[in-house]
Amino acid sequence: MTTYFVSRHPGASNWAAEEGVTVDAVILHLDPALVQEGDLVIGSLPVNLAAEVCARGGRYLNLSLDLPPELRGRELTAEQMRVCGARIEEYRITCVEPTDAAASL
To answer: Rounded distance, CA 90 to CA 5, Å?
Structure first.
């Protein structure tokens, strides 16, 4: 089992380390083909990638924040993340049915 922390933000990596989150690899971008059954993927992934993690037998743990509008788009420090309630929450995501959604609208 491998634990991946996916983030391109230094503040997020620092926050995880300061909070005692143990990981095997910190990566900037996730290639879902890396994920094997039982792996943990921690980060803030697009829903389609998180669903692929789950479909491959991995567990997806979202790095969640209660981010006010004035902080969106800014690099946050570990302390700012704590103030914004940074936490790790596990989600199980399943694609209901792959379709061309635009055609059905």
So the answer is: 13
| 3-state helix/strand/coil string of 27-84 | ECCCCHHHCCCCCEEEECCCHHHHHHHHHCCCEEEEEECCCCHHHCCCCCCHHHHHHC
25-31-32-36 Cα dihedral, nearest 10 degrees: -40
Query: Structural domain tally of the chain?
Result: 1
pLDDT tens across 76-87, in order? Answer: 999 999 999 999
Residue 76: inside a domain, yes or no? yes
Q: What's the predicted TM-score (pTM) here?
A: 0.89
102 in a structural domain: no
Measured distance CA(3)–CA(39) in Å, rounded: 6
Domain boundaries, position 84:
3-96
